[in-house]
Amino acid sequence: MKTYILLLLSLSFYISLSAQENQSPQSTAITDIGRYEIVQSEGSARYTFKVDKQDGRVYQMVKNDEGLYWQEVLVMPNPLDTAKAGYVNYQLFVSGHGPRYTFLMNVNTGASWQLAKDPENEKIFWTPMETNGMGR
């Protein structure tokens, strides 16, 4: 009986560790229904975003003494970025491997941004990614 209990405890511990290591990526859905979506990193609730899939604005969920609110995140200009008014243009991808692998993409042009952090003030922003001729 003691061996059986030890085996069950070891198995549950292993399953718990496996679940923590295998964080799956999250992304918004490409559908014509709904303008806004919320995406959260499985690694940290700090990286919870609301994306406007039509105009590409992204907001981060922030907490202060009064509660939670949406704070807009700066999206730097990207020369490949053009949006069709009234259509879904953007998708947000949040990796289970950390904020460095978080991306915003124009699904019609391929223009892409990577989440970055200003080392001076610790604020996050979206910086354009080079495409090496792709997306045109």
Topology:
Blueprint: H1 2-21, E1 26-27, E2 36-40, E3 48-52, E4 58-64, E5 67-75, E6 90-94, E7 102-106, E8 112-117, E9 124-128
The Cα radius of gyration reads: 19 Å
What is the count of distinct domains?
Answer: 1
Overall mean pLDDT: 80
State the major sheet. Answer: 9 strands, mixed
Order of helices and strands: HEEEEEEEEE
**Number of β-strand runs:** 9
Q: Give the percentage of residues in beta strands.
A: 35-45%
Within the largest sheet, what's the order of strands?
1-6-7-8-9-5-4-3-2
Number of helices: 1
| Overall outline | globular
> What is the straight-line distance between the termini?
66 Å
- What are the low-pLDDT stretches, counting only 5+ consecutive residues below 50? 4-22
Q: What structural category arises from helix and sheet content?
A: alpha+beta
The helix fraction, in percent, is 10-25%
